[in-house]
Write a structure and sequence with these properties.
SH3 type barrels, 2 domains, 196 residues, five-stranded antiparallel sheet, mainly beta, Gamma-B Crystallin, domain 1, elongated, single chain
Length: 196
């Protein structure tokens, strides 16, 4: 009986170590393909531009993961079955695909003299920096703060837009209220910030 209890306890403990591995976030930022107009809709290239060989295609409205955007107009994407470079005009970020002329709409509070503070630990702990309304960080890697934010404290009457990639690209979220723990796609993954 004692060995059965020991085996049961070991099995339960093993589940705690195996479960986090299954919960790992997928790589890349969430995105959608659209029917943009710069390149053939859905054309995938071997590199960032039409001068590279076409390596495949993907239809509009497909869910993709965006690995990186290395030039102002081209991003590398992948799905379970395809990988390649696509024009930024053929990509949309967010919960659903947007049309060609639909840009991000961020419902933010504006104009107050408050601050937003960013912490490298959960529950507003660890190292921090604060930014007043109107402050913009297009690339946190230039300040040494890239991919280091785990919680955000929002002052009265201000908001912040935080994005995974520099230049406010990729997955972005409006932060209107303090967040003691950021969601998985943003935890230690923020690269650009705008405080309103």
């Amino acid at each position: 009986m004692l060995s059965f209890v020991r085996l049961s306890i070991l099995a339960i403990v093993a589940l705690f170590f195996v479960a986090p591995a299954a919960a790992v976030q997928p790589t890349g930022s969430a995105g959608w393909t659209t029917d943009g107009w710069v390149s053939m809709p859905g054309a995938l290239y071997a590199g960032p531009g039409k001068r590279y060989d076409e390596v495949g295609s993907i239809g509009a409205g497909e869910r993709v993961r965006v690995d990186r955007c290395v030039t102002p107009r081209w991003c590398q994407i992948h799905t379970a079955s395809v990988r390649g470079w696509i024009s930024l005009d053929n990509l949309s970020f967010g919960q659903q695909p947007d049309g060609l002329l639909v840009g991000p709409k961020f419902p933010t509070e504006r104009g107050a003299k408050g601050q937003v503070c960013f912490y490298d630990g959960a529950d507003f702990s660890g190292g921090s920096f604060c930014a007043d309304s109107g402050r913009v960080f297009r690339d946190l890697s230039l300040t040494g703060l890239d991919n280091s934010i785990a919680s955000i404290e929002v002052g009265d009457g201000v908001s912040a837009i935080v994005c995974r990639d520099r230049g406010f690209r990729s997955y972005c979220k409006v932060i209107n209220a303090s967040q003691d723990r950021l969601e998985g796609l943003l935890t230690n993954s923020i690269t650009s910030i705008r405080v309103y």
